[in-house]
Amino acid sequence: MNITSDCITCLLNQSVRVAKNLNLDKPKSEELTKIAEDVIAKYSNVTPIVVASDLYPKMSEFVGSSDIYANLKAKSTKEALKLLVDVEATLETLENRLKGAIKASVAGNVIDFATPNQFDLVKEFKSVFKTPFTIDNQDEFLDRLESAKSFMIVGDNVGEHVFDKLLLQEIAIAYPDIELYYATRGVPIINDVTTKEAKEIGLDEVATLVDSGVDTPGLDYSRASSDFMKLYNSMDLILAKGMGNYEALDEVDDGRIYHLLKVKCEVVASSIKANLGDLVFKVNSTQSYS
């Protein structure tokens, strides 16, 4: 998915949010915006995540922090863990726990500091278990999960990863013979999950953690390590979480990949043929698996 004028505006606004998060004064905030403008001006016909992979290191260098959102990532994890007890209790009341865990995982996708539209995590969980997917290939995915020998979640944001762990736990209970993997970003970028945050909540207790090597907020194959791609290409089934992974993978011809996300910007809404705020569980290729 290539960058659009709306993406450019969004990326510029991200520099403003970084300045606010770090309490920069007006001159430094303006300088940070100028850095963003200069970076963005260099690009056309690339995905937004490629631009972000250039922009965020330059902003990090300017503010003197390699992990700009470290404080908010820690807060997101804390808030997600608070909600987890109630979410687990809700799963006990559902006829299909695995489908409930999928809904919890997509609800966690609202935690995103790069999008123009922000959603409330607590409100999301009050409604998510009764909210249908607008695009729904979930049953097809579950059918394939029954025969899969290996499965990977490509993670997205910190906080969200708490509910990804819950999903992996439910998959392990339902299908104990499947080898489970969880892919993280290679370096801190925006609020995306790295191996550090995954280990902090014990995700390695339910799945093998794999560092993708990418420095982009989405799985850009050209930035991934060769070892990761070898493992990734061996997977029977893949679940790509969030809009960044959708932006990176939507044009890849690979029916093993399913996208699980909440639509949080109009550009992705248009691309995926859904509306802002919709929940999506979509097979990657244009043709459904059969």
Low-pLDDT runs: none
Give the number of helices. Answer: 12
| First-residue to last-residue Cα separation | 26 Å
Number of individual domains:
2
Helices and strands: which structural class?
Answer: alpha/beta
Largest sheet: 7 strands, mixed
Provide a quick synopsis of the model.
The chain has 290 residues and is an alpha/beta fold. The protein has twelve helices and seven strands. The model has no long low-confidence stretch (mean pLDDT 92).
SSE layout and pairing:
Blueprint: H1 5-21, H2 26-40, H3 48-63, H4 70-93, H5 97-107, H6 121-127, E1 135-136, H7 138-147, E2 150-154, H8 160-174, E3 179-184, H9 195-200, E4 208-211, H10 226-233, E5 237-241, H11 242-249, E6 257-262, H12 266-272, E7 279-283
Parallel strand pairs: 1-7, 2-3, 2-5, 3-4, 5-6
Antiparallel strand pairs: 6-7
Helix pairs in contact: 1-2, 1-3, 2-3, 4-5, 4-8, 5-8
Keywords summarizing the entry:
50% helix; alpha/beta; seven-stranded mixed beta sheet; 290 residues; 2 domains
Question: Would you give an account of this structure?
Answer:
There is one protein chain. The two termini are 26 Å apart. A 7-stranded mixed β-sheet has the order 1-7-6-5-2-3-4. α1 runs antiparallel to α2, α4 runs antiparallel to α5 and α4 runs parallel beside α8. The chain is 50% helix and 11% strand. With 290 residues, it is an alpha/beta fold.
